[in-house]
Amino acid sequence: MNASRYRMTWMNRRWRKKYKGQMKYFGLLDGETKTSSYQRCWRECQRWMRDVDASQAGSEQDAARQQWAPILNAVREAQQRTIDLHGDTEETRAIWQDLESTFVAKLIRPAISQGQGIAGDDAITSLIDDRLKQLQGLHWQPPATGSGNLVTPPKQASGTPPWEQEEEISGIHQLIEKFLTSVKVKRSERRAANLKQGIDEYLKTLPSDVSIDGFFSSDAMRSYRDAIEARELSASRKRDLVAPIAQFARWAHEGELIDVLPRIVSAEKMKVSVSTDRRANPYADGELRKLLKASSGRSRLYLLLALNCGFTQKDISDLKSPEVDLKKGQITRKRSKTGDHGNVPTVTWRLWPETLALLKEHVSGGDRVLVNEAGRPLVQEKDGKRTADAVKKAMDRLRTDTKRKDPITFKRFRPTAATKLHEGPHAKFTQYFLDQSPKSVADQFYVQPNQRQFNEAVSWLRTALKIDQLGE
């Protein structure tokens, strides 16, 4: 194949693409060559470029919103001056509606949705003032303070004034913003960012000017679901890209923002086929011992935190100083993934001597207990997507050191510890060890876990996993 046919650059046995000021590399899989890897890497590159486009589009809208803010404020001030001067009359409402339609609905909102900013605001501000004067002439009325001297004072309007009504949704992008804002308030910004990923991915498959009805079309949703299901993604990733669309539809329907719930959602078919085999995939005893023996320093600390406390990469990265008591040798916290769920317990794990020693050696002294060499979080995310993972890099180095063919999947250490605990005399603490929400009424409301017994369970786990033999 001629080099000119490649749309990426081949460098140091990997493909490279520069797009809109960003650089991305795509490496080879086992057994692949430059030629055989190109099509797969190009498909990955195209998905990455779409993500860059979506991210920049969101940034453009945020920038446009900031630039239009003074204009929107000028409209609101003009409307409020009219209300303060004349009160809530039919003429006041007519003036308010005209300003809202002329400047907000027809000018400001469309420009923001398209990411179009504005260089200066003096000219438009003057237009607002001129329009207000015209409207005051068309809808003349005396000031509210002097209307009592008139034979027939202005009639006060009835019903809820438009400025106190629920803001009218003018398009799908405004509806999406309203949905994500409600999620941020009721759940968390992180949850909203995760939902936004799925919605943004769905938007890429629709026309740029799609209507609200078009967005919630069952046919469009079905096509998107089928396309995601056909992609080479993990089952959980597919679910994360499809589920937000159904959740958004239910929220809009329950809030009476759409009249009909899409049939594909009401029929519970807006979902991907995820294997029902949820059995854990723990490391075998011999395999685990080999990895622990080969590890040292930070890589061993990460493994021990996963086995000692059931931590994931994110848990380790999010670990804060107030949660760690090095004198008592314990960590007290909620899981990062479910920390905003009210029924998830706050668990105290007694640290093994091996874990505590390494933690003392590598503690940062700052707010985050463990950081990378640059002093930044071990796991970094942007818009809900993981952009850096020092724990994974440590596992990749360990894989190289052990000449292991298969990747070292960090999330398998958590079920490895849980499975071992469940097989022993302290099985009742497995759910609590994993910091999962109580399943039964008794667990949730009546039974307070016994800390002494739980400490014994964690200590037993150290022996069962042969952590106490690492020095031998």
Automatic annotation (TrEMBL):
Region called Disordered, residue ranges: 142-163
Q: Which residues form the Tyr recombinase domain?
A: 287-450
Query: Where in the sequence does UniProt note compositional bias of the Polar residues kind?
Result: 144-159
Keyword annotations for this protein?
A: DNA recombination
Output the Pfam families linked to this UniProt entry: Phage_integrase
* Stored InterPro entries: DNA_brk_join_enz, Integrase-like_cat_sf, Integrase_catalytic
GO BP terms in the entry? DNA integration; DNA recombination
Write out the GO MF terms: DNA binding
Keyword Endoplasmic reticulum listed? The answer is no
Ribosomal protein found in the keyword field: no
Q: What is this protein called?
A: Phage integrase family protein
Q: What is the lineage of its organism?
A: Bacteria, Pseudomonadati, Planctomycetota, Planctomycetia, Pirellulales
